Amino acid sequence: MKTELSGQTDTLSDDRHSDLWRNFKLGDRQAFADLLELYYPLLLNYGVRFQKDREFVKDCLHDLILDLWNNREKLDDVRLIKMYLLKSLRRKLLRESRRLKWFREANEVTEDYSFEVQFAIESYMISNEVQHEDLKKLRVKLDKLTKRQREAIYLRFHQQMEYEDIAGIMAINYHSAVNLVYEALKFLRKNWFLSIASLLLFRN
Asked: pTM of the predicted model, to two decimals?
């Protein structure tokens, strides 16, 4: 019988997520379907921030899903499923983008991808009748963050991930993850909208 899911990864306990993962590895198609129902929207939302071509992201995501199913018996027991899936999708997007020469060749992938980050800041400002000029200034400030800073901020505050998880997803060390978030917030604090940013970033 199909498990009742709400579509939100936080509605099930960690043990239940682990049970689904173990059953999926054993070939349980329903467990795999439940995992996809939980994580597909989150993965797609993350992917389209790397690559604006939504169909390209979907293709990579579907390839990832096939890889997971076809290699399920070889997969490790995963403690943090969300982190594992985000990291896997990130790796596939970057690899496929380089393979298709959609991105420039470089020794580091640091700035070789496009990452758009949107919190609820703009919606908040609009709903609270913040002046249009202030909204334009906010967009300019956010655009001045590096792509990696934007990604780290997104993972930290939009996905509520710990620094260890951010480091794992972005293939960097713990100190670098902390530093990316710190430098991004430092930059924002130096600018005019500290009170708004602080309210939105830390209210969850």
From this structure: 0.65
